């Protein structure tokens, strides 16, 4: 729940204590199940994380160790307080609150998270038929903007993550497309009065 | 003699020949980056974009947000039937842009309320069987032809000067309707396709389909540039 999570916001100087996991608009059973497994929970505790939120979408997972609060909302107390829910209209606040984000490989999620300068571990979903998503996460991992991992290697990916080595992702630069279209449509100057800020 | 009169055969052959020649010239017309005639900074340019829902819409609106809204007027957002989410996102962008427009500008010049929506049926719904796809695709094409070819002829709003596309499939029918205009010698929009940021090493299906047809084919990862005369990469655009 938001009250419990906000009370544990990171103290200045620490690497932060809140983890957010998101699977996007479909489902990713293996990711949710793995995040809830002891090896991952252990390494998260060891790295100092105290709260874990999981946006699970339509995933199926073992809920036997969880307390069901409401429809599509599960919780577990303890030294890694866990909260699981299916969907929200916007995840922006969840991204902003997180000190580490573990996500599916959707390009929208990746861009949003990286532009908020949040450490990101991406797990491409191997069950997707058209697995072009892995191409994007691999390419961005190659450039150092994020870490790409598999469900099986997630504990090692969390353990080995050194946030200081991540390369900041560039902010949106609209001038490229604006200049491209202006030129194509015959405008000679690239900064019209209305475009100036 | 019961055979077809010779003159009819000749007329038919000439007609078919003329159509083929016209088709050939339209399809093979040079698509190199040939800018439109020079425009003054204060001139306007009508603009249309297809919002293909989900990630397509997000990327398309991100591109649109970069534009000068006082320059690209009027704006037409083409959406698929039932895609209220894309419509809402476009309205949000328009409101945000209107709010940042300089307040010193006369109200007639303000960019708000200078946009419209055009709705066309989906060419193919997710999970739709292949059997019925030709019918929905035909309906989709009819709607596209109505808005791009017929409407502007019968005093509807004029056809936009540029049409921005980034997938998925339904944007193909807009491309076909544009080619119908070119075939008939009518004014037609310049077609600009931007491949998704998510495509690093392989083009999307819509990218492969539209690549030979559009005027500018722009990808966001250099590995996708296969033919330097046709494919362009200017880095990340979204």
Features:
heterodimer; A: 197 residues; alpha/beta; Rossmann fold; eight-stranded mixed β-sheet; 8 helices; 8 strands; elongated; B: 238 residues; seven-stranded parallel β-sheet; 6 helices; 7 strands; 39% helix; 14% strand; globular
The overall average pLDDT of chain A, rounded, is 88
Second-tier CATH architecture of chain A: 3-Layer(aba) Sandwich
> How many beta-strand runs of chain B?
7
Largest β sheet strand count, sense and barrel closure of chain A: 8 strands, mixed
Q: Summarize the main sheet of chain B.
A: 7 strands, parallel
* CATH topology category name of chain A: Rossmann fold
Our count of domains of chain B comes out at: 1
Order of helices and strands of chain A: HEHHEEEEHEHEHEHH
Helix content of chain B: 25-40%
Describe the protein.
Chain A is of the alpha/beta class. Chain A has 8 helices and 8 strands, in the order αβααββββαβαβαβαα. Chain A has an 8-stranded mixed beta sheet with strand order 3-4-5-2-1-6-7-8. Chain A has one domain (2-6, 15-168): Rossmann fold (3-Layer(aba) Sandwich), CATH 3.40.50.2000. Chain A is 32% helix and 16% strand. Chain B has a 7-stranded parallel beta sheet with strand order 3-2-1-4-5-6-7, sandwiched between helices. Chain B starts with 5 loop residues before the first helix and ends in a 5-residue tail after the last strand. The interface between A and B is large, with 33 and 48 residues.
